[in-house]
Amino acid sequence: MEARLNYFASPTAGKAFKYFMSAGKTVKESALPAATQELVALRVSQINGCAFCIDMHTKDAAAAGETSVRLNLVAAWREATVFTEAERAALELAEEGTRVADAAGGVSDKVWEYAAKHYDEEQLTALVILVSFMNTVNRLNIIAQQPAGDYVPGQFH
Protein backbone atom coordinates (compact mmCIF):
# COMPACT_ATOMS: atom_id res chain seq x y z
CA MET A 1 0.00 0.00 0.00
CA GLU A 2 1.25 3.45 -0.88
CA ALA A 3 0.00 6.77 0.49
CA ARG A 4 -1.99 9.01 -1.83
CA LEU A 5 0.17 11.99 -0.94
CA ASN A 6 3.81 12.31 0.04
CA TYR A 7 3.71 15.04 2.67
CA PHE A 8 7.50 14.94 3.00
CA ALA A 9 7.99 15.88 -0.67
CA SER A 10 5.39 18.65 -0.73
CA PRO A 11 6.58 22.25 -0.35
CA THR A 12 3.11 23.26 0.87
CA ALA A 13 3.02 20.50 3.48
CA GLY A 14 6.59 21.32 4.50
CA LYS A 15 5.70 24.93 5.19
CA ALA A 16 2.47 24.10 7.02
CA PHE A 17 3.89 21.19 9.02
CA LYS A 18 6.83 23.29 10.24
CA TYR A 19 4.40 25.27 12.38
CA PHE A 20 1.97 22.48 12.99
CA MET A 21 4.61 20.09 14.34
CA SER A 22 6.05 22.80 16.58
CA ALA A 23 2.61 22.98 18.21
CA GLY A 24 2.76 19.22 18.79
CA LYS A 25 6.24 19.56 20.29
CA THR A 26 4.97 22.25 22.65
CA VAL A 27 2.28 19.90 23.94
CA LYS A 28 4.84 17.07 24.24
CA GLU A 29 6.96 19.33 26.47
CA SER A 30 3.99 20.46 28.60
CA ALA A 31 3.20 19.48 32.19
CA LEU A 32 0.61 16.94 31.01
CA PRO A 33 2.13 13.55 31.94
CA ALA A 34 3.79 11.79 29.00
CA ALA A 35 1.95 8.52 29.68
CA THR A 36 -1.38 10.35 29.62
CA GLN A 37 -0.43 12.02 26.35
CA GLU A 38 0.28 8.67 24.69
CA LEU A 39 -2.90 7.07 26.04
CA VAL A 40 -4.99 10.01 24.80
CA ALA A 41 -3.25 10.05 21.40
CA LEU A 42 -3.88 6.32 21.07
CA ARG A 43 -7.56 6.56 22.08
CA VAL A 44 -8.30 9.44 19.70
CA SER A 45 -6.59 7.52 16.90
CA GLN A 46 -8.59 4.37 17.71
CA ILE A 47 -11.88 6.29 17.56
CA ASN A 48 -10.93 7.86 14.23
CA GLY A 49 -9.51 4.64 12.80
CA CYS A 50 -6.08 6.10 12.01
CA ALA A 51 -3.90 3.01 11.62
CA PHE A 52 -0.70 5.03 11.17
CA CYS A 53 -1.21 6.92 14.47
CA ILE A 54 -2.30 3.78 16.32
CA ASP A 55 0.93 2.13 15.16
CA MET A 56 3.01 5.16 16.15
CA HIS A 57 1.53 5.81 19.57
CA THR A 58 1.41 2.16 20.58
CA LYS A 59 5.10 1.75 19.71
CA ASP A 60 6.19 5.07 21.25
CA ALA A 61 4.30 4.29 24.47
CA ALA A 62 5.78 0.79 24.67
CA ALA A 63 9.27 2.17 24.06
CA ALA A 64 8.69 4.63 26.94
CA GLY A 65 7.82 1.73 29.25
CA GLU A 66 4.05 1.49 28.94
CA THR A 67 2.72 -2.03 29.53
CA SER A 68 1.03 -4.09 26.86
CA VAL A 69 -1.91 -4.67 29.22
CA ARG A 70 -2.65 -0.95 29.46
CA LEU A 71 -2.11 -0.39 25.74
CA ASN A 72 -4.42 -3.26 24.87
CA LEU A 73 -7.11 -1.99 27.25
CA VAL A 74 -7.22 1.63 26.06
CA ALA A 75 -10.08 0.79 23.70
CA ALA A 76 -12.11 -0.53 26.66
CA TRP A 77 -10.77 1.80 29.37
CA ARG A 78 -14.14 2.16 31.14
CA GLU A 79 -14.13 -1.51 32.13
CA ALA A 80 -10.39 -1.69 32.82
CA THR A 81 -8.91 -1.34 36.29
CA VAL A 82 -5.41 -0.42 35.12
CA PHE A 83 -5.91 3.32 34.62
CA THR A 84 -5.71 6.05 37.25
CA GLU A 85 -8.66 8.35 37.89
CA ALA A 86 -6.72 11.17 36.20
CA GLU A 87 -6.09 9.03 33.10
CA ARG A 88 -9.75 8.03 33.01
CA ALA A 89 -10.75 11.71 33.13
CA ALA A 90 -8.37 12.49 30.26
CA LEU A 91 -9.62 9.57 28.18
CA GLU A 92 -13.24 10.59 28.71
CA LEU A 93 -12.52 14.19 27.71
CA ALA A 94 -10.61 12.91 24.67
CA GLU A 95 -13.56 10.78 23.61
CA GLU A 96 -16.11 13.57 23.92
CA GLY A 97 -13.74 16.02 22.25
CA THR A 98 -13.25 13.61 19.35
CA ARG A 99 -16.89 12.63 18.98
CA VAL A 100 -18.23 16.17 18.79
CA ALA A 101 -20.70 15.30 16.04
CA ASP A 102 -21.95 12.26 17.97
CA ALA A 103 -22.06 14.03 21.32
CA ALA A 104 -24.04 16.97 19.86
CA GLY A 105 -23.03 19.31 22.69
CA GLY A 106 -19.31 18.60 22.57
CA VAL A 107 -17.58 18.07 25.91
CA SER A 108 -20.14 18.02 28.70
CA ASP A 109 -19.79 20.08 31.87
CA LYS A 110 -19.64 16.84 33.89
CA VAL A 111 -16.69 15.53 31.87
CA TRP A 112 -14.94 18.90 32.00
CA GLU A 113 -15.36 19.17 35.78
CA TYR A 114 -14.05 15.62 36.25
CA ALA A 115 -10.94 16.45 34.22
CA ALA A 116 -10.50 19.75 36.10
CA LYS A 117 -10.35 17.80 39.38
CA HIS A 118 -7.23 16.03 38.13
CA TYR A 119 -5.45 18.59 35.98
CA ASP A 120 -4.55 22.24 36.46
CA GLU A 121 -5.32 24.87 33.83
CA GLU A 122 -2.02 24.42 31.96
CA GLN A 123 -2.47 20.66 31.84
CA LEU A 124 -6.08 21.04 30.69
CA THR A 125 -4.93 23.42 27.98
CA ALA A 126 -2.33 20.90 26.82
CA LEU A 127 -4.96 18.14 26.90
CA VAL A 128 -7.41 20.12 24.76
CA ILE A 129 -4.69 21.05 22.27
CA LEU A 130 -3.52 17.41 22.16
CA VAL A 131 -7.04 16.13 21.41
CA SER A 132 -7.44 18.75 18.66
CA PHE A 133 -3.95 18.08 17.30
CA MET A 134 -4.53 14.32 17.15
CA ASN A 135 -7.86 14.74 15.40
CA THR A 136 -6.14 16.86 12.75
CA VAL A 137 -3.22 14.46 12.30
CA ASN A 138 -5.61 11.51 12.11
CA ARG A 139 -7.52 13.19 9.32
CA LEU A 140 -4.37 14.06 7.38
CA ASN A 141 -3.26 10.43 7.54
CA ILE A 142 -6.67 8.91 6.84
CA ILE A 143 -7.34 11.11 3.80
CA ALA A 144 -3.90 10.33 2.36
CA GLN A 145 -4.21 6.65 3.34
CA GLN A 146 -0.88 6.54 5.16
CA PRO A 147 0.09 2.89 5.52
CA ALA A 148 0.77 1.53 9.01
CA GLY A 149 3.14 -1.04 10.43
CA ASP A 150 6.59 0.27 9.60
CA TYR A 151 6.85 3.03 12.21
CA VAL A 152 10.00 2.93 14.35
CA PRO A 153 9.68 4.34 17.89
CA GLY A 154 10.90 7.94 18.05
CA GLN A 155 11.01 8.26 14.26
CA PHE A 156 9.59 11.79 14.26
CA HIS A 157 10.98 13.09 17.52
UniProtKB/TrEMBL annotation:
Keywords on record: Oxidoreductase, Peroxidase
Tree of life domain: Bacteria
Residues passing through the membrane, by range: none
Stored InterPro entries: AhpD-like, AhpD_core, CMD-like
Domain Carboxymuconolactone decarboxylase-like: 16-96
Protein name per Swiss-Prot or TrEMBL: Alkylhydroperoxidase
GO molecular function, one term: peroxiredoxin activity
Organism field: Streptomyces lydicus
